[in-house]
Prior knowledge:
Bound molecules: beta-D-glucopyranose
Shape: globular
Structural class: alpha/beta
Mean pLDDT: 97
Number of strands: 13
CATH class: Alpha Beta
Helix content: 40-55%
Largest sheet: 8 strands, parallel, barrel
Amino acid sequence: MENTQTSFPKGFLWGTATAAHQVEGNNTNNDWWEWEHRVDTPCKEPSGDCCDQYHLYPNDIKLIADLGLQAYRFSIEWSRVEPAEGEFSLAALQHYKRVIASCWENGVQPIVTLHHFTTPLWVAAQGGWENPRTADLFARYCAKVAQFMGSDVARWCTINEPNMVSTIGYLIGQFPPGKRSKSSRDTVNAVFCDAHIKSRDAVKSISSAPIGLTLAMAEFQVDEQSENPDEIAMAYAKRQSGFDGLETCFLEAAIGDDFFGVQTYTRERFNAQGRMKPDPDSRLTIMGYEYYPQALEATIRRAYTETRGVPIMVTENGIAVVNDQERVEYVSEALHCVLRCIADGIPVEGYMYWSLLDNFEWAYGYGPTFGLVGVNRETQERHIKPSARWLGNVARANALLPLA
Ligand code: BGC
């Protein structure tokens, strides 16, 4: 039966997200800065001054509040806080403390991610995430941040999408360090799982705020077109190996967490040969993947089941499009997915749109526009898109509103 409920539960948290390297500017001391300046990488352009959020955060946080959103998920840049091994920068810690204070002053809950794709150069030089010691170094940095921020953080995310760092960085070679090795990817997955558990336990011994992991999850579908049962079986096996490489260890590592961050953008389809390209006539986003907001329902359900009941927070969901009306349509469909999951008893605690700003989309540079708010990078002026106002009104109503 169709779910006609359009209200969200009381206390459902509405927000938006960014990551340090994608908005701050001049994060010169991490592996991404080095990667984006190399000629032998797929990067379109360097991040440069970015959206200069390092200086403009008071303006951006006020904007979030004015829109009617209640939470801001952003990340702390490890390479700023610990620019060399064991050397912690008080100035950087104080900066992030001010960002957190600015959130509270504006009535916005700060959701802090401790690692979002970027790794300090000195860690990368020691083998990065292939080196098991990195898990301990990361936990020490997290403990330092937790001690400094005290009880000011509303929620912690340990690691953002470790499966993307391991797969794109160590198996496909498109993110730093540009490796193409299955065994490296498997090692990195294990080190990240260890890092999640160690950092979670370290932070939990200091801070009472809920803490969880976030994972990139697409809906994995099997293409059942073939008449040949062996081919169908093969497609299921390919899908399973996708799950195993991208999700299994992380969903297990998250059992017992306070919440689990689902981050979904599209679906992936599998046939006997493996991952399929989108159909030529399908609707694509600027990222080149399929417009498929329905994926969020399957990923929330899977995350909840596989973590054996950890409450869910949608820590990222969004779309890169030029036509802002398509963003409203996409988010509206995704929110229907959330409502269906909630109606079935799954505790989904909030929704963070990716992203607040049009920002640095990693190897793609500044081309893909995910933002609720556009940025003129010559003047650093922000311009609010209609989708931002629509989402703010949804947040105020705590209910899905008709499309703008
Ligand atoms: C990442 C973001 C990224 C977004 C859109 C997620 O994989 O966490 O950093 O910008 O997807 O591609």
